[in-house]
Amino acid sequence: xxxxxxxxxxxxxxxxxxxxxxxxxxxxxxxxxxxxxxxxxxxxxxxxxxxxxxxxxxxxxxxxxxxxxxxxxxxxxxxxxxxxxxxxxxxxxxxxxxxxxxxxxxxxxxxxxxxxxxxxxxxxxxxxxxxxxxxxxxxxxxxxxxxxxxxxxxxxxxxxxxxxxxxxxxxxxxxxxxxxxxxxxxxxxxxxxxxxxxxxxxxxxxxxxxxxxxxxxxxxxxxxxxxxxxxxxxxxxxxxxxxxxxxxxxxxxxxxxxxxxxxxxxxxxxxxxxxxxxxxxxxxxxxxxxxxxxxxxxxxxxxxxxxxxxxxxxxxxx
Length: 318
Ligand code: TXA
Ligand code: MG
Known about the structure:
318 residues, alpha/beta, eleven-stranded mixed beta sheet, four-stranded parallel beta sheet, 9 helices, 17% strand, globular, binds magnesium ion
């Protein structure tokens, strides 16, 4: 992995669909084009995440953020008070939002933030688009607060790190959900609760209080599942089933058929997963048979997600 201070090299690498670690005031992020499913899949692969945890979208200004998310009164107040800075807001996706569905793990919401670090700001402006960036560490390890940490953790996984020295905050951003009427702190971080409460003039609960309605993102009930029923590990087709294939499925004759990856590549399949589930829904299919996906690399996260999508669900609450 190469370390550089040259913003234009980094921006052109990102434009070509590549991944770059870059500094923010909280921790280093592993960045890729937030509109590009393939770049997002590559981020999950580099981090080795066992699940598709949704990622945070980074933009250079509140103005830009409004292109992608819908901000209610509370969200506007928080953005105006604390952006740029160590605060992430979870808001509904705007209509026609161009952010990769894989980036928000198929949720109807979006986590978005405006970082304050001067290099992050410069990079976002030079790149000219939204960057999705989880902390630049292998899954399960500690978030990196220097370019050196990134080099140690992700060596061999990515090509480039933009060196901006030590992160000043050193803790991840505070995440606040602004989906309901009352804001909820989903993750404590660089911005403290007292400052949020002072700005809003109300008490703000956190998911850990046990009083708040929402808990960890992995348990969100709004996780996207298609309207159709799903049958996993399908080697053959039953009457009326559409096929969501993987690898060579030429022997299967479905009226409606999409293939996650004709050549059987799990990273490509990950990039296509959420958008293809949505496509099948939009076509109005009732039953989906899904080919077996090898449980290796990103295959594990794909299978985890498919299992959730296939699980019996309470339609009344959606
Ligand atoms: O300080 C930070 O936030 C750093 C820097 C790089 O910006 N990023 C970071 O990203 O910590 P990551 O991927 O390590 O953590 C993102 C968190 C996860 O806990 C994820 O579940 C949550 O954000 N998240 C993302 N989208 C969400 C959504 N739509 N609803 C609820 N939680 C969401
Ligand atoms: Mg992290």
